[in-house]
Amino acid sequence: MSFNIEDLARVNVRLLKPYQSARRIGGKGNVWLNANEYPLPVPFTILQTTFNRYPECQPKLVIERYARYAALSSDQVLVTRGADEGIELLMRTFCEPGKDAILICPPTYGMYSVSAETIGIEYRTVPSLSHWQLNLPEITKLLKDVKIIYLCNPNNPTGNLINPNDLRILLEITANTALVVVDEAYIEFCPESTITGCLQTYPNLVILRTLSKAFALAGLRCGFTLANKPVIDLLLKVITPYPLATPIADLACQALSDYGIKLMKKHVIELNNTRDFFCEKLNQLACIEKVFPSKTNYILVRFIDSIKIFNALWNQGIILRDQNNNPGLSGCLRISIGTRQECEHVITALQVL
Q1: CB-based contacts of 73: which residues, under 8 Å, 6+ apart?
Q2: pLDDT value at position 130?
């Protein structure tokens, strides 16, 4: 009798559809506008040259610099391998598989549900309203046994902000029963909208951050979990012994220096200006039905024939992100903001389609 190694795997893993990251989907492009990366590299190089010792679990200088940047205390900051590790770490710390659940509001970032499935945690969905705001009455109905609610703000892939009053109402509703995790991966593009100021009021608030977007360090895989000390202390019990390699901590420290933060803010201004220019030009094209407002480094666009557009641009080496399979996003493509030249290239290509 032949042996199938898959029989050893957990049932939910055998059935799991993995998260389709931009690099996993692939493509042969020269204009990459599908992963919400900053389009140009930043001038940091590895300064640390000794690698025979294990790194600190939580590199002190990285924590101190991010705490200063976020206007928090060091005991409110945890550094992880990208914000994705923070997403999963929270589930492994607070959710009992087979008993507890998480709740998400699609369309939203796909790793929330994938992480839940891999761990064996139920995930419940409450689709956003037509204008992509929270459906608080429906969320309230499904809170039994929910330990964590994940919200992306600004939201990926729609680019909009969640009404801050709704966030506060949700934090109050769940005050004694669940964590509200606000994923602020794109907050540098609209820093006035951060919810970090609410941490002192709401013990159940957790915020996720990353260096992958505005800091232009997607290849670094460095993220942060911001919360009050009791939450951070619990996460420290579960996190792996050495989550951040020495070169990663080295580069993260440089990015979070005064110079690094000043450079990031300069890049944000430039990118936001390019985004506004790009939106203006897209709105003039006949192939487009709607360009949705965005507070991020990407825009969601509904095309008259999105599949035709996606494939035509793909064949020209312009790689976008198809959103047709996301709830409520039929006909939509997500376009990361590249350089001014890359955006002009997209406009030129669309004009003849």
Answers
A1: 67
A2: 87
Beta-carbon count within 10 A of 68 CB: 15
Nearest to 262 by CA among 194, 193, 215: 215
Q: Which amino acid is at 15?
A: L
Tell me if 251 sits within 8 A of 217, measured CB to CB: yes
Q: Angle, nearest 10°, between helix axes 229-238 and 82-94?
A: 90
d(CA 73, CA 81): 21
For 143-173, the DSSP string reads -TTEEEEEEESS-TTT-PPPPHHHHHHHHHH
Q: Is it true that the peptide bond before 203 is cis, omega within 30 degrees of 0?
A: no
Nearest one of 248, 241, 251, 243 to 225, comparing CA atoms: 243
pLDDT at 260 over 60: yes
How far apart (Å, rounded) are the C-alpha atoms in residues 341 and 127? 36
| CA gap 274, 340 in Å, rounded | 6
Task: Give the up-direction half-sphere exposure of residue 38: CA atoms within 13 A in the CB hemisphere.
Answer: 28
d(CA 216, CA 180): 27
- Strand, helix or coil at 249? helix
| Pairing relationship of beta strands 122-125 and 101-104 according to DSSP bridges | parallel
Residue with tokens 């689709």: 127
CB-based contacts of 332, cutoff 8 Å, min separation 6: 157, 300, 301, 302, 303, 306, 323, 324, 326
Return the percentage of the chain with pLDDT > 90, whole number. Answer: 91
CB 207 within 8 A of CB 283: no
- 319, 34 in Cβ contact below 8 A? yes
- The three-point CA angle 48-50-54 to 5° equals 105
**Other C-beta atoms within 10 Å of 222: how many?**
29
Q: Tell me the average pLDDT of the chain.
A: 95
Contact residues for 272 (Cβ-Cβ < 8 A; gap 6+): 189
Q: CB-based contacts of 95: which residues, under 8 Å, 6+ apart?
A: 101, 102, 119, 121, 147, 148
**Residue ranges with strand state E in the chain:** 31-32, 77-80, 101-104, 122-125, 146-152, 179-183, 205-210, 223-226, 288-291, 298-303, 318-319, 321-322, 332-336
